Amino acid sequence: MSLPAWSAARVVGRDEIEVGPAQARWVPLAVQIPPEEAARRGPGAHGLVFQVERMPSADVASAQLAEASTFVIPR
Fold this sequence. Notes:
The chain is mostly beta strands. It is built from 1 helix and 4 strands.
């Protein structure tokens, strides 16, 4: 996973998430940004996009998708 438009942002606690074939489920993620970035963007809800990649295996090709979400910076 990556956050292309938020270069200073980091997904914390997980490097990989496994989701089985035809499975759909909620996956809570924690995202952190440095205080300077929060000050620059200002308080409020900010859109962000996760770039999610399916890792290739012997019988499955890699694939990517973009998943929109919201990042809230408190006052």
